Amino acid sequence: MPDIYVAACNCNGWTRRLAGLSTSAQWKGILTKIRSFTVVFTLLIINKAGGLIYNRAFDSSLAALSSNDSLILAGTFHGIHAIARNLCPPSALPSSTLSSASSTSFTSNPSASASALGTRATPATGIQVLETARFRLTCFQTVTGTKFLLFTSPEQPNVDAILRRVYELYADFVMKNPFYTTEMPVRCEKFDRGLVGFLVGAR
Amino acid sequence: MSISQQPKAASNVLQQQLQQAPPSGGLRYPSSKKTIYDRNLNRTRTSELSRASFAYLFIEMISYAQKRAPSVSDLEKRLNASGYPLGLKLLDLLIYREPPRSALRPTRILALLQFVHTTLWKHLFGRPADALELSNNSPAEYMITDNEPLVNAYISIPKEMSQLNCAAYVAGIIEGVCDGAGFVTESVTAHWAEGEDIWPGKTIFLIKFKPEVIEREGILKGGTS
């Protein structure tokens, strides 16, 4: 099965995006060199009701979604996230992950059984990570129910640190903005600037 | 997220005192009957305020003003009016806190502006302002520049209100200081500096003194030179 690689190559200072079927060994040589890029692709923010309030692509390697499709994606994810939380078994065993090159695997946090020592059972959460061969989707849900979805390449390290920083930027430039109404689409210039400055450089 | 419930930041001691007060209706006084007016003025000299607390309080101030203001310039006037009494009180407090040798009320325009540029800014924002200049248009106008006003730190102005500068609140404080010191101003306004790439939030505070102040300054200069 031919794999489709999207790669970038530097030729004399120009960066060109090459997409296509990689059959020749020469192509494979270039592509394996560059495949170790760790990239942040997209950030989505979903409000309490499941509506998409922020959608920003930082890298065009992933196929771009139309705005309608992004809304559908956000709503669907919101629903699945809630269903996964309810599906979580009450035992402490984590669900096993399937790992094959192009299948998806997801992990969610099951509630630990309360032991006699009185440890608090961690409440079940919904989907936290969804990984495919091409990208990894990490979901961070705040205490108030806002979800931050981050699409990164599978090798990207420190996704949690990145999400925490994004949350910090959100708390600063969106929540402390007098002209922002909560649960509405985010249109804050300083938030955009902060994100671009942080994520485009975070390779 | 509720942004209107943040209490005004006071020092820890006062908050503890307030918490011990009986929960009856109306204004609450601490059981020791000591209010904020009984405390030593120098006590809070170096105390700091969390930026987030101020940000949330400021958001509410802006929303409150916006509900009653139909236009951008009205909104700026209301913010200005909120800052005015602060300026009057800060003038006395800051002069009182200076070391006795230099604790003098400024009597010349330049001394007043130096006071605003350095002492006032350091007290409010922890650093002196960035520039102080005389305007080219008229000898009665002075400009204080701040590359990044602290009050605007988290505020992104929407496109339909691009003229609004929330540092009008700080302009009100400056107006209070100038008026309190005896230098009556026509207005103190906050404007965005045009064409700034390095500092996109650069703000210029334009201080317009009344003609009698300039006249008095001229007489004083003629008398002492």
Automatic annotation (TrEMBL), chain A:
Stated name of the protein: Trafficking protein particle complex subunit
What keywords tag this UniProt record? Answer: Endoplasmic reticulum, ER-Golgi transport, Golgi apparatus, Transport
- What Pfam families does this protein's entry cite? Sybindin
Mind telling me which InterPro entries this protein's record contains? Longin-like_dom_sf, TRAPPC
* Cited PANTHER family: TRAFFICKING PROTEIN PARTICLE COMPLEX SUBUNIT (PTHR23249), TRAFFICKING PROTEIN PARTICLE COMPLEX SUBUNIT 4 (PTHR23249:SF15)
Where is this protein localized, as stated in its record?
Endoplasmic reticulum; Golgi apparatus, cis-Golgi network; Golgi apparatus
Domain of life of the native organism: Eukaryota
Is Endoplasmic reticulum one of the keywords? yes
Q: What quaternary structure, including any partners, is listed in this protein's UniProt entry?
A: Part of the multisubunit transport protein particle (TRAPP) complex.
A GO cellular component annotation here is:
Golgi apparatus
According to its UniProt entry, one GO biological process term is:
endoplasmic reticulum to Golgi vesicle-mediated transport
The UniProt similarity line reads: Belongs to the TRAPP small subunits family. TRAPPC4 subfamily.
- Which SUPFAM superfamilies does this one have? SNARE-like
Automatic annotation (TrEMBL), chain B:
Complex and partners = Part of the multisubunit TRAPP (transport protein particle) complex.
Q: Which SUPFAM superfamilies match?
A: Ligand-binding domain in the NO signalling and Golgi transport
Localization per Swiss-Prot or TrEMBL: Endoplasmic reticulum; Golgi apparatus, cis-Golgi network
Among CDD domains, the record links this protein to: TRAPPC5_Trs31
The UniProt keyword set, sorted, is:
Endoplasmic reticulum, ER-Golgi transport, Golgi apparatus, Transport
Q: Which superkingdom heads the taxonomic lineage of this protein's source? A: Eukaryota
Q: What is this protein called?
A: Trafficking protein particle complex subunit
- Which terms under GO biological process does the entry name? endoplasmic reticulum to Golgi vesicle-mediated transport
Question: Looking at the keywords, is Lyase present?
Answer: no
Composition-biased stretches, type Polar residues, lie in: 11-22
The task this protein performs is described as:
Plays a key role in the late stages of endoplasmic reticulum to Golgi traffic.
Has keyword Endoplasmic reticulum?
Answer: yes
